Amino acid sequence: MTSHLARNYAPLPVDIDTAEGAWVTDVTGKRYLDMLAGYSALNFGHRHPGLIAAAREQLGRVTLTSRAFGSAALEPFAEALAALCGKDLVLPMNTGAEAVETGIKLARAWGYRVKGIPAGRAKVVVAANNFHGRTTTIVSFSSDPDAREDFDPFTPGFVTVPFGDADALAAAIDDDTAAVLIEPIQGEAGVIIPPEGYLARVREITAERGVLFIADEIQSGLGRVGETFACDREGVVPDVYLLGKALGGGVVPVSAVVADEEVLGVFEPGQHGSTFGGNPLAAAVGLEVVRMLETGEWQERARLLGEHLGEKLDPLIGHGVTAVRRAGLWAGIDIDPAIGTGREVCEHLMARGLLAKDTHGQTIRFAPPLSIRTTELDWAVEQLSIVLA
Ligand SMILES: *Cc1c(COP(=O)(O)O)cnc(C)c1O
């Protein structure tokens, strides 16, 4: 049978039918441990009972109002999310790419209206090997040929510097620079962790130079790294948080831009929006996600499980693995090319009942639901060592 799906993905050949917690079951009844967790959209596991209950409750009330009207669900979500971030205002959107686009528009409007950049000249400094989404503007500053080829002409106004090099970043900033936009840890690039002190220096440099620091925490944020945000690892507070993925609890797409009044206050009615952004169903699920993160238990769990995962993965270095990079319950594992490609290893893992995703050829990412058990993590690493042997 030929597929009617466009071929913009090359999924592993599994058709998932049902899921619960860290496990999924395919149409033949075979079970798999989910070590990708929807690229961290499923931080709390599949169908977390609290999130499903919040969604069900809201389904019985109202699901969509549009922002032409208010909803009872939206303000409580915004209030809780702003508090979680320590900021004043929330601008709700749907997908991560929309949050990034909103962040770019925000940076430009702030640059002209607050900083006083001359018309048409605002620039945003970004990092090489970034992943911020798939819109035409966002791929304009990607360094991945697959993401760009034949999608030009591109949006101007971006300057790329190497990731992790604070001096290069400082040198790229001039009077027309509105913002620096980076992932505090580069997820799609293979869980690339910048040198210690980098985020703190980015914070210092941007504050000194009067430039917004926009942190794309869409994949790194909301518990994954053992803290609420990856920026917390260096005690850094950016001017703007971009959030998505786990904010929707794996139930609905929910993203947001979160910042203080003097930044996010630049938007006036009519200047930006979204039909579905902040809809009552999204707000109800998002509020429950924020409540779950308020106690710090998920962050603590990611920290402890991550340390355990690291202890199990590190001994594989030199045995089919050339490097392991880890932050909380998030690991980039570089596979020795002598063993095979990341994709081949993922196919063998799939046959053994474990779903993981390769990135950039030789890297496999482990980002299981934070609800996974220690014994399940042990089992996952055991499957990996069998496949590598
Ligand atoms: C996934 C991701 C995005 C894009 O999110 P979508 O919901 O797929 O549009 C943006 N930034 C980062 C860091 C991401 O990981």
TrEMBL record:
Q: Which InterPro entries match?
A: Aminotrans_3, Aminotrans_3_PPA_site, Class-III_PLP-dep_AT, Orn_aminotrans, PyrdxlP-dep_Trfase, PyrdxlP-dep_Trfase_major, PyrdxlP-dep_Trfase_small
What would be an example GO MF term here? identical protein binding
Q: Which cofactor does it need?
A: pyridoxal 5'-phosphate
One Pfam family cited in the UniProt record for this chain: Aminotran_3
Supply one GO BP term.
L-proline biosynthetic process
Q: Which UniProt keywords apply?
A: Amino-acid biosynthesis, Aminotransferase, Proline biosynthesis, Pyridoxal phosphate, Transferase
Q: In which pathway does it act?
A: Amino-acid biosynthesis; L-proline biosynthesis; L-glutamate 5-semialdehyde from L-ornithine: step 1/1
What EC number(s) does its UniProt record assign? 2.6.1.13
Keyword Chloroplast listed: no
NCBIfam families found in the cross-reference section: Orn_aminotrans (TIGR01885)
What family does the database annotate? Answer: Belongs to the class-III pyridoxal-phosphate-dependent aminotransferase family.
**PANTHER family recorded:** AMINOTRANSFERASE CLASS III, ORNITHINE AMINOTRANSFERASE, MITOCHONDRIAL
Q: What is this protein called?
A: ornithine aminotransferase
Question: Could you tell me which species this protein originates from?
Answer: Microbacterium sorbitolivorans
Protein's gene: rocD
